[in-house]
Design brief:
CATH class of the largest domain: Mainly Beta
Shape: elongated
CATH superfamily of the largest domain: Nucleic acid-binding proteins
Number of helices: 10
Bound molecules: adenosine-5'-diphosphate
Strand content: 25-35%
Low-confidence stretches: 401-419
Number of strands: 24
Strand order of the largest sheet: 6-9-10-3-11-12
Length: about 425
């Protein structure tokens, strides 16, 4: 087990003056599962490869267990890495693939020297030790029965397990995984995702995992690091990032279907801050209003974000109520997903949005009405409104920043989720 600290890390590839990774700051705790997530080219793999020692760090410092490791050889970092393409040796059996790293490495042993003093020697692993370690890893991954096979005689999922097996036999301090599931089909990916969660319980070490898939990030990570164009956008637990995205990019990237965005205006009227859109307005929450008062927000153009699942359509067991504002919209496309329905609608102001409805909440009559009318009325709670500065794209509702100077800019509990 190890903790890993990345301090002000930059990576400039040769002949490029745009950093692939910029000002990267992160403290990875012992046994923590960290996921780096973001679109292709945002610098995730580069960051991982710098931790592994496969890529030089241009500026900044990398510490493993408090020891600066920028110049430590990859093999001396006690780190294992699993790649997307598995990189198995095709001519070797599963056993030999898994044993290969052990055969190449040396084990440190303390012995009594001639003068009675203790000396540290480095020796090869014995055959028995290698057997024991490979079998233990094979047992953890349930691949004991394939040890004699060659990689081509295995399914994609089994090959993936061998690649992981090869990495865990050496009991690394830190386990790095670069898009390990992206070569698998959707069903197998789901299965392997839960296997990685199980593996994590079994080997209980520090993980850094790279993926472009936000679902993978949300389900696996203790904390996730959302990246874009080489820069960290937000660091937080999955729920922190989901409930309080730091900016428009994170808001749009995390969550499916994507968050809906409206152009809107925020203004203080009759002593309260209100959000104006679609010819109506909603008061913001009292604590948020107080905050806007403190910073003298005044009138501001904003982007209002609402997640599809937070929009409630009027239906038999959710009838209209007095004093609540409803919006009308025409259904353009209705996607039946089984347990849920995704309604793509257009509002009176021609704003397109997606509404996610749990099908179990709809009666037969509701479904008939939807089909017959081709329109819906909907509302949402002010609690679920996300307010972004239109120009700067940042979330206007502040995170309470805990300035410990190490855990990044957005380590936070949020005002929105506090109620
Ligand atoms: P990700 O893993 O998020 O897809 P990468 O870390 O692979 O992103 O790449 C980040 C940026 O660095 C990209 O713009 C990519 O083109 C560039 N890059 C990656 N590897 C190299 C390389 N070996 N030489 C030059 N540029 C590279």
């Amino acid at each position: 087990m190890a903790y890993v600290t990345l301090k002000n890390i930059y990576k400039f590839y040769e002949k490029s003056d745009v950093p692939a990774v910029a000002d990267f700051n992160l403290e990875i705790k012992e046994k923590e599962f960290i996921v780096l997530v973001g679109p292709s080219g945002c610098g995730k793999s580069t960051t991982l490869r710098m931790i592994a020692g496969l890529e030089e760090i241009s500026y900044g410092n990398l510490y493993i267990d408090g020891v600066r490791c920028n110049d430590v050889e990859p093999k001396d970092r006690n780190i294992a890495m699993v790649f997307q393409n598995y990189a198995l040796y095709p001519h070797m059996t599963v056993f030999k693939n898994m044993a290969f790293g052990l055969k190449m490495s040396r084990v440190k042993e303390v012995k009594q020297g001639k003068n009675g003093k203790e000396v540290v020697i480095k020796r090869k692993y014995t055959k028995e030790e290698i057997w024991e370690k490979v079998l233990e890893a094979a047992r953890i991954l349930e691949i004991e029965e394939y040890l004699d096979r060659k990689p081509r005689q295995l399914s994609g999922g089994q090959r993936q397990r061998v690649a992981i097996g090869r990495a865990i036999v050496r009991k690394p301090k830190v386990f790095l995984m670069d898009e390990p599931l992206s070569n698998l089909d959707a069903k197998l990916r789901n299965q392997m995702r839960s296997e990685i969660l199980l593996l994590r319980k079994k080997i209980n070490t520090t993980f850094v995992y790279v993926t472009h898939d936000q679902v993978e990030a949300m389900t696996l990570g203790d904390r996730i690091v959302v990246m874009k164009d080489g820069f960290i956008q937000q660091i937080g637990t999955p729920s922190e990032v989901f409930d309080h995205p730091a900016n428009l990019f994170v808001a749009g990237f995390i969550g499916t279907p994507q968050m809906n965005f409206f152009d809107a205006v925020i203004e203080k009227i009759d002593g309260k801050y209100r959000v104006f859109f679609e010819n109506r307005h909603l008061e913001v929450r009292d604590d948020v209003s107080e905050h806007f008062d403190k910073i003298n927000l005044g009138r501001k153009e904003i982007v209002l974000g609402i997640r599809p699942e937070h929009i409630k359509i009027v239906r038999e067991n959710f009838p209209k109520q007095k004093g609540v504002q409803y919006f009308k919209a025409n259904v353009i496309v209705s996607e039946m997903m089984g347990s849920e329905l995704h309604l793509h609608v257009k509002t009176e102001n021609n704003q397109k949005l997606v509404i996610r409805v749990q099908t179990i909440e709809l009666s037969k009559q509701d479904r008939l009405n939807l089909e017959k009318n081709g329109s819906v009325e909907f509302t949402f709670d002010r609690e679920v409104m996300h307010l972004f500065d239109k120009e700067k794209e940042v979330n206007l509702v502040p995170t309470k920043i805990e300035e410990d100077g190490r855990n990044g800019r957005f380590k936070s509990k949020t005002l929105l989720s506090e109620r």
